[in-house]
Design goal:
The chain has helices at residues 74-84, 133-140, 149-156, and strands at residues 6-18, 25-27, 30-34, 37-38, 47-49, 62-64, 69-72, 98-101, 114-117, 122-128, 163-169, 171-174, 178-183. It is α+β, with helices and mostly antiparallel strands and 194 residues long. Helix 1 packs across helix 3 and helix 2 packs across helix 3 (149-156).
Length: 194
């Protein structure tokens, strides 16, 4: 079934940048984005090395970096926390760079969605961000009395872990800035329809 393009509006509810060598981030008031993403951030760069998410390549293979930014939703993080039985899951614990508000079911935005921000930045969504044990271990570090959070996070955050995106048009993002999400025309591929 074919569905025409959709436009949605929202605002920036949080901005975060990695502080140091790890993927954990810290809140900031603004982010300057270049074609490599956030300068100095754990996921910056035009290319990246493959890992467990790309089993079709040997680990460490250099590929295009479509994971420059991790985009999250406070509502989805709240759902994940509730599923885990913990008070909260903060964006910075799992390497979030950008929290967007106003878009229901953010993690389900389709690949190729464009995010046009008021100050001129454009991000292109690659797809949903599959939850991993590394992020689960980071959450577990904040709740030492809860056993098994690393694996539980992988199950609880499925389709609620947010999105990964790359910079299509550089510029600066600011807290509270508005944006428009333009979803591409969608249809379901059916190989039986030849």
């Amino acid at each position: 079934m074919r569905k025409s393009a959709i436009k949605l509006r929202g605002t920036i509810g949080g901005l975060y940048k990695a502080a140091g060598d790890g993927f954990v981030t810290a809140p900031v008031e603004g982010l300057t984005l270049g074609f490599d993403g956030i300068e100095g951030d754990f996921h910056s760069g035009a290319t990246r090395r493959t890992g467990g998410r790309e089993p079709w390549y040997p680990r460490g293979t250099q590929i295009r970096n479509e994971r420059q930014l991790s985009i999250l939703s406070f509502a989805e993080l709240g759902d994940v926390a509730e599923s885990l039985g913990v008070p909260s899951v903060l964006p910075e614990w799992i390497g979030g760079n950008l929290v967007l508000e106003g878009i229901p079911r953010l993690s389900q935005l389709p690949p190729r969605t464009l995010l046009f921000f008021e100050n001129g930045v454009t991000l292109k969504v690659d797809g949903d961000n599959g939850p991993c044990r590394l992020s689960g271990r980071s959450i577990a570090g904040h709740y030492p009395d809860h056993d098994g959070l690393d694996l539980a996070f992988v199950r609880a955050a499925k389709h609620k872990r947010g999105l990964v995106a790359w910079v299509e048009k550089p510029g600066t993002l600011e807290m509270g800035e508005g944006f428009e999400a333009r979803l591409p025309e969608q249809w379901i591929y059916d190989p039986s329809e030849a």
